[in-house]
Amino acid sequence: MSILTSPRGKAEVVHCRRTQSHDIYCIKNLIRKFTQKLFGNLNVIHLLEKANLAITLHNDQEEIMAQATFLDYPNWNIARQHDWVSVFRELDSEIPCTPLNTLFMHLFVAVDEYSVGCCKEIIRTVFREVPELHFIFLIVPSYMSLGSTLITVFEQVGNAPSLLCDEDFTVHVCHRHSHRPQLHIREARVEDHDDLMPIFLRHDTVLRETYGEYFLGELIEAGDEENHAVVCEVEGAAVGFMSVCSRVNMQLLHECFDLGPFHGLCTPHPDDVLRPPPKPGLRGSPGAELGRSSQDTQRTEEEPQEAVSPEARERVQGRITKDAAVEEASSPVPSGNTGEVEDTGKLSQEHSADDVGYSVSTASSASVSLPEETGSFRPTYRGASAAFRIQLFCVDEKYEARSLDFMNFVFGLFPDKNFCVISLPHLTPEFVLIQNFVKAVPFSTCTLEQDLYIFHRAGLLKSITIRLATVSDTPGVEKLVSTLMLNKSILEDLKQYNEARRDPDGTPLQVFVAEVAEQVAGVAVIRDEMDIEYIRSHYNIEDFIYFSHHQREEHGRLYHFALNPVFRHYTKFFLKEILRLGYKSCLYYAVYPQAKEGKVQRSGARSLTSALHYLVPVRPRRQIVYPLEKLGTNAPSKEVSEDAVSYALNHTNRKLTLEPKITINAKIVVVGASSVGISFLDTLVFCNEKSPLELSAVKMQVCLFNVSLA
Predict the structure, then answer these.
(1) Can you tell me the distance from the alpha carbon of 646 to that of 634, in angstroms, rounded to the nearest whole number?
(2) Could you report the per-residue pLDDT of 311-351, keeping only the tens digit for each?
(3) Second label for 220, Cα 20 to 30 Å away, from 151, 457, 516, 705?
(4) 273: phi > 0 → left, psi -120 to 50 → alpha, else beta; which?
(5) Beta-carbon neighbour count of residue 430 at 10 Å?
(6) CA–CA dist 515, 463 (Å, integer)
(7) How many CB atoms lie within 10 A of CB 566?
């Protein structure tokens, strides 16, 4: 909520939310001839369907005051959708724009009397809602001025020609630092006590009641080499606090959590025991092969750590330092789920006495936790602890979206540590900071009433690049997926893509890779959706999209997705880039049921992906049973009437790529094997909880079902 004042002194209270379909009529009424000259003749419905972010301002009477629409590629055809970065780098090399930190304004309308205030409020909201965003570009015809409103937030950077006509366009930019700058982080001082205590007391009074009124000042004074306290500062006042400590109970964590993907949060050591000893009595027998296969699907395998050259370490370390000065990313993290496959990766660290570098290993593994653990082996790590922990954290709600700004500073306090961990009670509401952390998977024998969240130093890198795969990526992808159950299927798809760009049956195929520090950190395989009529007739997909505004070739199906867990918080960005580079507007992911023997029904099954957390489930439609013989020529098409293999459909589209999604850490116990209990779970899974800042995504998601069906 904000208060805007018109030039005549009239005040208006405005609220900000995501644009909804019923706003379209009012948006059209706010479009003037000047608006059409700036942005062109736009189909508002179509634009909102393809927008990554659309913000609406309204007053207390629900009257629309302003609206702005943002996409991840430029308008006016001054650059191709998949290749605009080089064009804008040529305009101004000092603006380090990337697909991660850039959006483009495609439409802005406002009530004339409050247009300046509305424009600034929308810009502030966009920078708040997208923490990794640093630049907003605006492109208009060169013969047009911005007017008295947009010129207050945009500045000109150059001219660019159109690809389709002989006309020049002027490019303007809006910088984050002018509206919602990054937070200044420094060591805490005792004088910060008075600024911080109101923030703490707003959330909880237990600490003061337990440790006394001046516990915070005492904690700051007690700082030493192992304990540090830092604050974030705005205009000379402390608005956030973090206390970190290098002492971590590694034995307890190894007993309670599967830390294999992170090498046990320890530095590699020659005496590490990462695999169980072979069973000599079973070697060479078919049973031995089956046993080894079963064991491989129940634990995370570790690959030998790769040596990293000093030059590579310096290059990666330099990128982190450079990126940290520009941007800190924030996105939700997937919850650990002991019932599904997690696409996980490994890290390799290289330590030296003077300069500690590290490298992100390209190896990946699949961790499958089954209801009954038949193997009792757990890795043994002999290396020193490579982690520090967050003891206490609090930040003012106004600046919560910038919580990740703390991380680069605190990692600098512990140059020999590569991991930051934080443990929280199970029912703690998810806050912005831990949305960037990876939730560790607990063992079935874990009795610790805490969840463990992990963040790696390399997660601060902003040099992640998503691109189409090439033949030279094959070795990197092989290492990344070497321990996944469906690694052969992924590699076959990669080979098929590099050879023909389509399947033998003619279905278009695309493979994308995520590259960080010149290493492959992720891979995704999509195909054009060929069964779109079946999906439309059997699932309520129109709860999320206006189907008629999406071309047939804009629908794609996600088959495989693997991403190093260090960069798990970039999953949504990966999906957004798949849509942009692949010229898609919708992605579908099918989860097929498993047969009793534990094998997926279809031989060409998709890998169960950790990106599932960022997709929304689509409710199936109740089907009409058609008497086909009686209907004869009046019967519906086979795409509608045929009984295909049933599956659970998950979906994302361009509108959902920047949609916030919060995990609710709650345990729900359903007692009784009844249709009512199943109906309750069905309603809970497919709930469409709408909030003021939500368009159509499922924002609430229960991360753990503890179901007891008697």
Answers:
(1) 25
(2) 444 444 455 444 544 333 333 333 333 223 233 333 333 33
(3) 457
(4) beta
(5) 21
(6) 8
(7) 28
Contact 144, 84 (CB under 8 A): no
Best CA proximity match to 332, nearest among 201, 434, 245, 251? 434
Of the candidates 398, 460, 405, which has an alpha carbon nearest to the alpha carbon of residue 433? 405
| Residues sharing a CB contact under 8 Å with residue 289, sequence separation 6 or more, in sequence order | none
CA atoms within 13 A on the CB side of 562: 33
How far is it, in rounded angstroms, from Cα 331 to Cα 459? 11
d(CA 411, CA 397): 23
Q: Measured in Å, how far apart are the chain's first and last C-alpha atoms?
A: 48
- 43 phi, psi to nearest 5 deg: -90, 105
- C-alpha–C-alpha distance, residues 616 and 95, integer Å: 35
Residue in 493, 487, 522 with CA at minimum distance from that of residue 510: 493
Amino acid in position 36: Q
β-bridge pairing 662-668 and 648-653: unpaired
Q: What is the largest CA-CA distance in the chain?
A: 90
Partner residues linked to 519 by β-bridges: 516
What residues are paired with 664 via a beta bridge?
702
Q: How confident is the model at residue 505 (pLDDT cuts 50, 70, 90)?
A: very high
CB-based burial label for 236 (10 Å; 0-12, 13-18, 19+): exposed
Which one, of 616, 455, 624, lies nearest residue 541 by Cα?
616
Using alpha carbons, list the distances in angstroms from residue 492 to 301, 486, 488, 503, 575: 22, 10, 6, 11, 22
Place of tokens 């034995």: 251
- Rounded Cα–Cα distance for residues 537 and 624 (Å): 10
For 597-601, the CB contacts below 8 A with 24+ separation are: 601/645
What is the DSSP secondary structure assignment for residue 699, as one 8-state letter?
-
What confidence tens digit (pLDDT) does each residue in 659-707 have? 888 777 777 888 877 888 888 888 888 876 543 333 333 333 333 333 3
Question: Using CA atoms, how far apart are residues 579 and 525, in angstroms rounded to an integer?
Answer: 12
- Residue 672: left (phi > 0), alpha (psi -120 to 50), or beta? left
pLDDT at 598: 45
Which secondary structure element, helix H or strand E, spans residue 678, and what is its range? Answer: helix 675-685
The reported pTM is 0.82
Beta-carbon-side half-sphere exposure of residue 633 (alpha carbons within 13 Å): 0
679 CB-near residues (< 8 Å, 6+ apart): none
